[in-house]
Amino acid sequence: MSKRAAVDYQSVKHVPSAPESPLLLELKTRRPPSLLDLAGCETWSVDFSPDGAWFAWSMGHGIVWVVAWPLDSEEGQDGETDRGDKSFSCGHPVWGLAFGPRPPKSARLAKTASKGKNILLLATGLENGVIKIWNVLTGSAVFDLHGHEGVVRDLVFPQKGSLTLISSSRDKTLRIWDLAHKGKKVQVLSGHKDWISCCSVSSDCSMIASVGRFDRMVCLWSLRSYTFIRNLMGGNQKQLCLLSSCDFSPDGAVLATAAFSGSSWWIDLWDPYTAEKLATLAYVCCMIESSCST
């Protein structure tokens, strides 16, 4: 499945205006001129595999491209894994993607979880509400997950080594899928009043956070009991804004949420256990949004 000629890899020199974060590499697709600038060509999501050996990006028009990382890597540690580029045709625009399963933080547990399993899954969330599960190492489709009735905007594998997948959608719900049973066992979390932009899981896998783009809700859910915990924004949010993304700190003690209104952007830092807002980081000058922004 090696098709490296279909993607341009460009090394980019140091950018003087941003010395603290130079652009190292730019990936571009070689699309036919007839497809340039048309709806559906957007890149909505990217992800690195848990071991950092693969990089995936939704390159538009229903195609996900997976490349070995670093780009000059040719074969796996076992000398047998095909390290050629891999493309996955999903049939519909891809809005969210995630590699899994993600091993637990403990090195011992991670080794146990991966022993004897030569598999790397890639979940892709599509515009038609379907989630496609792929085996990256073989390049084959494994199965589809059906249930969402809107765009699947974000996908997360909890960091515990299990075949659990969490999805958020424009249908106002989150779903927790058990991939060990091909998604036949699923928990549905309802409570948002509009599109869900993004979701995140705490490092101890006890809590899910989700943000609603238009309902301005920052919801916390229990991943153990599949129940609603609280809305951090409360019911008195008067400021008109759109919430775009959220993420837990590595130790799970802080939840960051990103929002914007007009040309103003800011990040709120929360204590997820007390619902206290710890700080707000405001940024007005640059219109840069995270990958969970629409």
TrEMBL record:
Biological processes, Gene Ontology terms: protein polyubiquitination
Return the PROSITE patterns for the record.
Answer: WD_REPEATS_1, WD_REPEATS_2, WD_REPEATS_REGION
Q: Entry's Gene3D superfamilies?
A: YVTN repeat-like/Quinoprotein amine dehydrogenase
Q: Per its UniProt record, what Pfam families does this chain match? A: WD40
WD repeats mapped onto the chain: 145-179
> What are the UniProt keywords, alphabetically?
Repeat, Ubl conjugation pathway, WD repeat
Protein name as annotated: WD repeat and SOCS box-containing 2
- Which species does the entry assign this protein to? Nothobranchius pienaari
User: What high-level taxonomic lineage is stated for the organism?
Assistant: Eukaryota, Metazoa, Chordata, Craniata, Vertebrata
